Amino acid sequence: MNRFDAIVIGAGAAGLFCAAQAGQRGLRVLLIDHSERIAEKIRISGGGRCNFTNRDIDARAPQRHFVGQNPNFCRSALARYTPQQFVALVERHGIAHHEKHKGQLFCDGPSQQIIDMLLAECAAGGVTHWQPCRVERVTFSAAGAHGTDAGSYQIDSDRGTVQAPRLVVATGGLSIPQLGASDFGYRLARQFGLRVVAPRPALVPLTFAGEGWAPYAGLAGLALPVRIECGQKKERMEFLEDLLFTHRGLSGPAVLQVSSYWQEGTPLVIDFAPGTDVAAALGAAKARSRKRIANELATLVPTRLADAWVGEEPTLQRPVNEVPDRALNALAERIARWQITPSGTEGYKKAEVTAGGIDTRDLSSQTMESKQPGLYFIGEVVDVTGWLGGYNFQWAWASAFACAGAMATVSPATALPASGPSAAAACV
Ligand SMILES: Cc1cc2nc3c(=O)[nH]c(=O)nc-3n(C[C@H](O)[C@H](O)[C@H](O)COP(=O)(O)OP(=O)(O)OC[C@H]3O[C@@H](n4cnc5c(N)ncnc54)[C@H](O)[C@@H]3O)c2cc1C
Question: What domains, with CATH codes, occur in the chain?
Answer without folding.
Answer: 2-201+353-414 (3.50.50.60), 206-345 (2.40.30.10)
